[in-house]
Amino acid sequence: MIKNKFYSQLACILIYVFSFWLSYFLLINLSWTTNLLQKQLSGDINAIWLLILIWHVYATIIVYIFSVILNNSSLYDPFWSVAPVPIVIFLSMGMDTLDIKFLVLFPICFWALRLTRNWLISWQGFSHEDFRYIDLKNTNRFKAEITNFFGIHLIPTLIVNFGLFPLVYFVDYSSSSVSMPLLYAASLFTMLAVILETVSDEQMRNFRSNPANKGKTMKYKLWKYSRHPNYLGEVLFWYGIYFMGLSTGLLPIWTLLCPTVMLALFIFISIPMMDNRSLKNRPNYKEYMDKTSSLLLLPPKR
Predict the structure, then answer these.
(1) Is the pTM here over 0.85, yes or no?
(2) Who contacts 285 (Cβ-Cβ below 8 Å, separation ≥6)?
C-alpha cells in the first residue's frame, strides 16, 4: 500500500485523470450511445444530461475499482468536488454570453477548489481511511462490498449529479430569456454559501491545531450557533445551483427536489454519523448538542 501522503495524492490524481479519460472514451465509442450523441448535437437536453450521467457513473465505477485494489474508499473523497468541474465546463459551452458563463462557472469552480484544497490538507494518504467508511463496511465481506459500491460510491455520485441537473436548462435557452438580476443574486448566494463553508472549516482547523483542545468540543464563533455550519454552507451551495437554474425560467417545479435530496443526505446521514462519533469521543458533546442547532445558525438554547 502507498502510505506516503504526497505519493498517495499523486496516485489519486493519476487515477482520476485516467478514470475521466476512459469514461469519455467509452462514452463516445460504445455503439449504444451513438443515438444519444446525435440527439445531444441537436440540443436535446434529456440526451445531454443522460450522456453526462453515463460519464459520471462510468468514472465512479473506475474509481471504485481502484479503491478496491488499494483497499481504501477514501480514494473517492475528492470525486465529490472534482467530477462536477468538467460537467459544468461542458455545459458552459452551450451558454452564449460570457457574463452568464462567468456567473455560473466561478462559484462552482471556487467551491471545487475549496473542497479539493480541504482534502489535500486533511487527507494523510492511503494509510488513512475515513471513519464513516470503516463503520459502514464493518460487516461481512459481501455486505461490506455492496455498501462500498452503492453507499460510498454510486449513491453520492447520483446525488451530486441530480444536484447539478438544474444547470442543463442553460443549454435550452436564449440569453434574452435569462433573468440576469436573479442569476446575479443566485451566483452571489452560491459564493456566500462557499464562504460560509470555508470560514467554518478554517475555524475548526485552527481549533484542532491547538494541542490543548484535544478531546474538547468546538463551540465558538460560527460553531456556537450551529453544530455543523460547514454542512449548512454545503447545503446552501446546492440550493444556489438550483436558483441559478431558476433564472432560465425553464425549470419544472419538481427540480426543487435536486437540492432537497442533498439536504436530506446531510440531515439523515452525515449529521447523525458525525454527532454519534462526537458523543463517543467528547464528554461534553451531549451538553453542546442539547443547546446547539444541528444545521441552521441559531442562538444557543439556555
Answers:
(1) yes
(2) 217, 275, 278, 279
C-alpha cell at 62: 473506475
What is the per-residue pLDDT across 135-192, written as a single tens digit (0 to 9) for each? 878 777 888 899 999 999 999 999 999 999 999 999 866 656 899 999 999 999 999 9
Amino acid identity for residue 271 in this structure: I
DSSP structural state of residue 300: P
The DSSP annotation for 276-288 comes to: HHHHHH-TTHHHH
Q: Which residue has the cell 447520483?
A: 158
29, 30, 32, 38 alpha-carbon torsion, rounded to 10°:
-10
Are the CB atoms for 232 and 296 separated by under 8 Å?
Answer: yes
Euclidean distance between CA atoms 43 and 153, whole angstroms: 30
User: What does the radius of gyration of the chain's CA atoms come to, in whole angstroms?
Assistant: 20
Nearest-5° Cα angle at 168, 243 to 268: 60
Q: Phi first, then psi: what are they for 231, rounded to 5°?
A: -65, -35
User: Does the CA dihedral 280-285-289-290 come out positive or negative?
Assistant: positive
